[in-house]
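Researcher: Next entry: ABC transporter permease subunit (Massiliimalia timonensis).
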Amino acid sequence: MIRLLRANMGRLKKETAFWAAIIFMVFYALCVCLMAKYSMDLNDNSLPLDGLFLYGYGLTGLIAVPGLVMAAVCSLFVGTEYSDGTIRNKLIVGHSRAGIYLSNFITCAAVGIALNLSYALVVCAVGIPLCGWFTASAGTILSLIADGVLMLISYAAIFTMAGMLMQNKTLASIFCILGVVVSMFLSFYLGTCIAQPEMIDTLQIIDGEQVMKSMPNPRYLSQTVRNIYQFIIDFLPSGQSVQISGQTAPHLGLMAMYSLVIIICSNIIGIFVFRKKDIQ
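Model: Predicted structure:
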């Protein structure tokens, strides 16, 4: 396993897609800081560092930025092992399939953490002089960071499984990116459904006068449906991403548990299928 990890890290250092992703995250962090500066100058107010820092896990609670970047890098990195015949060579020299799979998963997890660190370092270097220190408690910030890191590792588990079970790296990349996009928009849609108020104000004309009256919102969800929708958002890595970045996550502990479930199940299923896979 150690030899496999060393080989993967050596190849990662030479991976163009990885360094392009690092550069993108640095550029993304600088853009976030510049937008914050512009907003503060325009509105003559101050913004807390909390929001800028948490944008590393998504953009304003809307776009799962790290998931999209990791989908491209991880699927290409793993897929290249098939196209270059690296996996076949590793099997020939005696490495186990489980070891090969887990070494790729650990490498993909390291990619996600490296991308997050590059963003965090730039935001802290530029954002602290601009916005000051965090306003939330240390416990809250650490909980959000822990959930965010587990979310990135769960992405890595899913992308590793897709890349290891699909020999075509282009197909794997498309599958991973589309999966992030679909789950991201699904989470946003479900979130808007949950946010529907129980009562809505309507304008009615009574005796020739306009009167505002409250009436039940037909789109208001029952408690059972609300719980199901919230579970889906909390469970999906993209749902976790938009909630953490938007600072709207109501169940940090459950989200961490769901990420662990995804990590464990994805690796178990992936290793089981990969062991039976015919390597061409």
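Model: Note for the record: The first helix runs from residue 2 to 13.
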